[in-house]
Specification:
Pfam families: ThiS. The structure is a single chain. With 68 residues, the chain is mainly beta. It is built from one helix and five strands. The chain has a five-stranded mixed β-sheet, with no helix packed on it. The longest helix is centred in the middle third of the chain and has 7 residues.
Amino acid sequence: MLMTIYLNQQAIQTDISSSLFHLHAQLSLPNQGCVFSLNGQVVPRSEWQHTKLNSGDEISLFQAIAGG
C-alpha cells in the first residue's frame, strides 16, 4: 500500500512502511553528502533506518555540492 509524502514540496508515493533509510535508497542517492529534514527537524543519518515516514510528512533533502 502506498502513501503520499512531500519531498522538497513535490508529492511522491512511497510504501506505507517506509523509513528515511528506504527513501534514500528509493531515490538512488549517494551515500555521502545528504541531509534530511523531516517536518522541520534535521534527522541524523544514524536515525534514518528507525525513522518511519507517515502520510503527509514534509521532507527536505539537502545535498552537499563540491566546488571551488
